[in-house]
């Protein structure tokens, strides 16, 4: 029987290195998407706050909380929105820090495994028979 491949950095196969690299990139994309989502939430909060400031405080309004539509008054909702509007930039800064750390982790992983990401572009005039889907592709090269 053959032994399973060791788990140390030196004993990883190119497929394992590539899978780990892709996982790190996926985590980075998730962080970037979440950061973008929080930015849109902040803008929406600001728009709603400005709208509600011009409305009578006793007027009823509705707010979605955890997928449930809740009926409240403007006077009850406005302080909650203002609090959220203060909290969102802090959460965004924390995500930006995590995103920067993830980028540093990816760069370190690329260096430690001697990974080169190459972009292959179709040269002008050459290979005209290839379709556009294969004209540009990324190639991951890991040196063993």
TrEMBL record:
Name assigned to this protein: Prefoldin subunit 2
SUPFAM superfamilies for the chain: Prefoldin
Family: Belongs to the prefoldin subunit beta family.
Bias kind Basic and acidic residues: ranges: 122-134
Region: Disordered, residue numbers: 122-144
Quaternary organization: Heterohexamer of two PFD-alpha type and four PFD-beta type subunits.
GO biological process terms held by the UniProt record: protein folding
Pfam families associated with the record: Prefoldin_2
This protein's GO CC annotations: prefoldin complex
One MF annotation (Gene Ontology) recorded for this entry: unfolded protein binding
Superkingdom of the organism of origin: Eukaryota
Function comment: Binds specifically to cytosolic chaperonin (c-CPN) and transfers target proteins to it. Binds to nascent polypeptide chain and promotes folding in an environment in which there are many competing pathways for nonnative proteins.
Keyword list, A-Z: Chaperone
